[in-house]
Design brief:
- The structure is a single chain.
- The protein is mainly beta and 280 residues long.
- The protein has no helices and 21 strands.
- Strand 16 (200-205) and strand 17 (208-213) form a beta hairpin.
């Protein structure tokens, strides 16, 4: 079973300028998760600096905030994002040893950077908000208590050459996501943001629950049921990242058997019978 060590607290005042590593592929991030093998960190850039690299790993750049010019083989494009909650992301997916240059165009530009090893070479691909349509999961189920916006960036079906799967979830205030609880053999990373600095939520890890706040990261061990809930009044965002295991790619998850009934629209669950008119 996991412990509170599965929670990697973020800085309450926000991430500093430059690159802040959160997980490391080269060594065990947590003793309970030996197969994570993902480098994950946050990069904040300011106007006037240009970040250039040619990294040996497969890399995904996910824009969290701001605007920037990206230059990579064959393309020079400008991307921008004002709100994690109201706008889909721009995400640049690069194969190993692919050069990229990032020039910020706004006062504060923040990126989530995800890396893992990959022996395959493949062409870069830029995902834009126009490519990433929202999927409102949970609609019409259990009184819409788990309605959320899921934004899949790419998976094995759309990017089979990748060793990664990643996307975003916008968890509406007071509601659940990753629900019903589910599990998969591949470990996973969740990185959280909230609509206000005081926002918080709870992450279930099997029978354990951890409180998550703005900037926190949770590492989910293999085969462990997990679900999330946001405190009322606070929108909760999380970036989710999975790495395919050798010979065992991520192709989906398994719901906790005892809660699968919540997937049936005909079973909405208990409703109070004594509410005043207008509150039912």
């Amino acid at each position: 079973m996991p412990s509170v060590d599965a929670l990697l607290p973020g800085p309450r005042a926000g991430f500093s300028s430059g690159y802040t590593p959160v997980t490391h592929a080269a060594g065990p991030d947590l003793p309970a998760v030996p197969d994570l093998k993902i480098d994950f960190g946050l990069l904040r850039l300011v106007v006037g600096e240009v970040y250039t690299e040619t990294h040996a790993s497969e890399t995904v750049w996910v824009l969290l905030n701001g605007s920037a010019e990206l230059e990579f083989p064959g393309q020079r494009v400008t991307v921008s994002r004002k709100s994690l909650f109201d706008e889909p992301p721009s995400a640049l997916h690069l194969g190993p040893r692919t050069p990229v240059s990032v020039r910020p165009l706004s006062l504060d530009t923040e990126w989530a950077i995800v890396r893992t090893s990959n022996d395959r070479q493949f062409a870069p691909r830029l995902y834009t908000p126009a490519n990433l349509q929202p999927e409102y999961r949970g609609a019409g189920l259990v009184q819409n208590a788990a309605l959320r916006n899921v934004r899949l960036i790419f998976d094995r079906s759309t990017r089979p050459e990748s060793n990664l799967v990643l996307g975003e979830v916008v968890n509406f205030p007071g509601r659940w996501s990753s629900y019903p609880p589910h599990h998969h053999v591949q470990p996973e990373i969740y990185h959280y943001r909230f609509t206000a600095p005081s926002g918080y939520g709870h992450a279930e890890l099997g029978d354990d629950v951890v409180k998550v706040r703005h900037g926190d990261t949770v590492i989910i061990p293999p085969n462990l049921d997990h679900a999330q809930v946001s405190a009322p009044g606070y929108g909760m965002y999380y970036l989710w990242i999975i790495r395919h295991l050798p010979g065992n790619p991520y192709t989906g998850f398994t719901f906790a058997e005892e809660h699968k009934w919540t997937l049936d629209p005909a079973q909405q669950g208990w409703r109070p019978s004594d509410l005043p008119p207008g509150l039912a």
